[in-house]
Design a protein that fits this description.
single chain; 137 residues; alpha+beta; Cathepsin D, subunit A, domain 1; five-stranded mixed sheet; four-stranded mixed sheet; 11 strands; 42% strand; globular
Length: 137
């Protein structure tokens, strides 16, 4: 299977809350549309520090992460972002890598938005077609 990429929009979760409460305008929500590599081996959303700064996300902590090449590195955990893909969205705390590496869309956001990789067409698609289904098992 080849590399699958998807265009996603990321919005600062705190800004979304502040806009909903009337403290900032909807147009002031910091956001970015990026092309992410869909990585079912990554646990969550992984962004780089440049994107974290662009979105205005504060660092909330750190944790150890193991990369595909088996190296370990302490990475940052940022404030929540809302991920949008077509008609779906979810919120999560992204891991932040220090270099300007590729944005990774990992397993938890994929599961939450009911998405999967179509290996034949090498695209991101809904597990249940256009219908979003949350699994509660």
């Amino acid at each position: 299977m080849g590399i699958v990429r998807a265009e996603i929009t990321l919005k600062n979760g705190g800004d979304i809350t502040r806009a909903g409460d009337g403290f900032i305008k909807e147009s002031e929500i910091r956001q970015a549309t990026v092309t992410a590599m869909v990585d079912t081996g990554a646990i969550t959303l992984v962004i780089n520090d440049e994107l974290r700064e662009q979105l205005g996300l504060k660092v909330q902590g750190e944790r150890w992460a193991t990369f595909a090449n088996d190296t370990r590195e302490m990475v940052k955990i940022a404030e929540p972002v809302r991920i949008y893909w077509k008609n779906r969205s979810m919120i999560c705390e992204p891991l932040v890598v220090s270099d300007n590496g590729e944005i990774l869309l990992g397993a938890i956001p994929l599961e939450d938005m009911d998405l999967m990789v179509d290996p034949v067409h090498q695209v991101l698609t809904g597990v249940h077609g256009e219908e979003i289904v949350s699994m509660l098992k």
